Amino acid sequence: MSLKDKYAIVGIGYTPQGRLPGRTSLGFHLEACANAIADAGLKKDDIDGLICYRAFPGTADEGMVTPYLVAQRLGIAPTYMSQDANCSRSHIQHAIGALEAGFCNTVVISYGHNAASSDSMTRMLMEMHPDDAAFGNFGAAAGYALAARRAMHEFVTGPETWKHIAVGQRKWANLNPAAQMHSRPMSFENYRNSRPLIDPFTLFDACLTTDGGRAVVITSAQRARDLKHHPAYIMGIGQHNPSVEPSRSTFMAGPTGAKKASQAALRMADISLSDIDACEIYDCFTYTVEITLQDYGFFGPGEGKDWFQDGTIEPGGRMPVNTSGGLLSEAYFMGLTPLSEAAMQLMGRCERRQLGPTTGTKSPEIIIASDNGGILQTHTCTVLRR
Amino acid sequence: MEPRPLPNINSDNREFWSACREHRLQFQKCEACGHVRAPGSHLCHLCHARAAQWITSSGKGKVYSFVVYRVAFHPAFAAELPYVVAAVELEEGPHLLTNIVGCRPEDVTCEMAVEVAWKDVSNEVTLPLFRPA
Asked: Which of A66, A224, A227, B102 has the most CB atoms at less than 10 Å from its CB?
């Protein structure tokens, strides 16, 4: 039987976000989870599934955050629990798989990290590719930059395309008071003058680091009907894991996992790309947005340069993308930044940045959201509807 | 000064790093299907055959992709800025993550012909870097 529309996001939990020194990662997980549970109109005892985003290295004053700790401090004893050691971004598949199998009835997916004010994110990134460190290669930026450079060789792309992504998302962030880059407008000139990082990327091509957390509650459509908000139904999900690291990849310019993942998600949803009203795309780097939309089929290789022109993805544009500001300009909670924004938009709870008449865009019926881990090694695509 | 990090040498890649110390670039060639692979691995990812022989590479290849570090992520590399990290495609097929040396970063291009240039960094480790051919 099809999983289409069988499960839904019913609650979203936010925390303060930005640079908030003095708080633990565990505390952000707990605040996000408790807020998500309350937002759904549920009690903690209703939660019998807990899925945490990846484990990060502990810091001088805090050990690794485990799902045991999150469950213990939330005061729940789930019948299903998991956490990624790495970044395969299967959280929504785990949630729906466990719900469908009957292992649990209501799942919280949680992220919490004091990444901006501790060395935990840096330590994770520095340990990411130990065999490359001897060559001075560290973290994720260079891997994505390698992919982007190869793409520049194979088709027309580069900063002239990416500026529309950075600037467009910043416009959305300026409609979102919670965004880290709210009240900090960005012009094309600002983008051009951004600080060097790793060519071909500059600082404004890269996502933020954030202290904070985010959580979503997922349950069956049947249970969702009795809860507080109109749910965001999960129409389709798909995942693909090319898995090859960039130093070994012979297909660095794509297609990435986004292609097969989106095909599977659209097939389950039984819709086509033309039914999509907005996109919430995992945007660790500007180029990630371009290659994801390209692999989804919104435009052909190199056609992004024209597709992004004239404010396509901005408020008032014909295909809004990353309407919270995204990882580039709102906050970094991995796939929960795009996924939670997709659900909030479909619930109609986005205030000044709400898609529809408020922002001069189409009122959204269907939104596509992505999550992407490693260096374009894993991709999850989720289609949500009102 | 903080020393340059060194590769993790283990049973999968010891042959590779031992050969590097003697300035020979070696890859495993699958005895069943002939696929040449790097890094060293327990089996061939194409056919799953275990048997492999180590072959010596010509050390010639081309730049598949590259980036230029403008910021030091590790203090050992601060003095090297700006430096080039590249994926090089060897004639035998495998890709290696490496540095391009012997030219200015702005002169590096995708598909540029390169050859191996050895850098001895410790008694145990010699790194295969690449320079314009």
From this structure: A224
Give the model confidence (pLDDT) of B59-100 as tens digits.
999 999 999 999 999 999 999 999 999 999 999 999 999 999
Cβ atoms of A114 and A107 within 8 Å: the answer is no
Chain A nearest-CA distance from B32, in A, is: 22
Nearest Cα residue to A345 out of A329, A369, A314, A380 = A369
HEC profile for B19-67?
Answer: HHHCCCCEEEEECCCCCEECCCCCCCCCCCCCCEEEEECCCEEEEEEEE
The ipTM estimated for the assembled molecules is 0.97
A79 domain-assigned: yes
Residues of A in contact with B69 (CB under 8 A): 136, 142, 198
Distance from CA of A144 to the nearest CA of B (A): 10
Tens of pLDDT, residue by residue over A254-294, are: 999 999 999 999 999 999 999 999 999 999 999 999 999 99
DSSP 8-state assignment for residue B120: E
End-to-end CA distance of chain B: 33
What are the sequence ranges of the domains in chain B? Answer: 14-132
Is A155 found in the same domain as A88? no
Q: Do the beta carbons of residue B103 and residue B47 sit within 8 Å?
A: no
